[in-house]
Amino acid sequence: MLEIKNLNVWYGAIHAVHDISMSIARGEIVTLIGANGAGKSSTIRAIAGLVKGAKGQVTWTGKDGRPVQLLGRPPEYMVKLGISLSPEGRRILPQLTVEENLMLGAYIRSDKDGIQADIEYCYRLFPRLKERRGQKGGTLSGGEQQMLAVARALMSHPDLLMLDEPSLGLAPILVEEVFATISEINREGRTILLVEQNAYAALRIARKAYVLETGAITLQGTGAELLENPKVKEAYLGG
Fold first, then answer.
1. Cβ–Cβ contacts within 10 Å for residue 65, how many?
2. Strand ranges in 62-187 using DSSP code E only, listed in sequence order
3. In which residue ranges of the chain is CATH 3.40.50.300 found?
4. In this predicted structure, what is the pLDDT of residue 65?
5. pLDDT value at position 88?
């Protein structure tokens, strides 16, 4: 589905991502873990078309079986292909209601019945959003805003859902809820690329995982393998 070869990302003179290569197969949950500044968000933003200083090959193969090179394409092109990003920091529009934020996520679509069906799907995933459908996004709690950010990303009906730090700043009970929902979204057919500092939670649900350190992949394997890896335990799982 997605093949990355020798991806490099620069921000001016800063070389943030160094020659990383990775693959995502249809139906997988793949996670990138690592410390702050490791290059996780830079990687996912490059895939989404949000980074100009990116070189290498990022190849998307959709349901039609036709490979497409992504680097250099604008973000709206990625959305039309079926790639959606829930960004770090949520980035909801605070003056719009919950439902208006969801409608904004469907801006590329014209199928009114399908849009309404997906709104109801998001309300099923996140019942609290349904309770607050007419409430302005800026008045929601942090956990509710994170739910809204994920739901908004789902509204483009993506094949690949990319999540950037979905548990950041959430209470432990909400972290469990968010990760349970991510697993449910995956079981219902969507491929997921997850960038996450909570390594334990991410590795528990990931089929495949990569560890980034200072912009380079240093370890890779299944989520279960990395949970048992001594280096991962020491660096990211509290020993």
1. 6
2. 67-69, 83-86, 160-164
3. 2-82+158-236
4. 87
5. 85
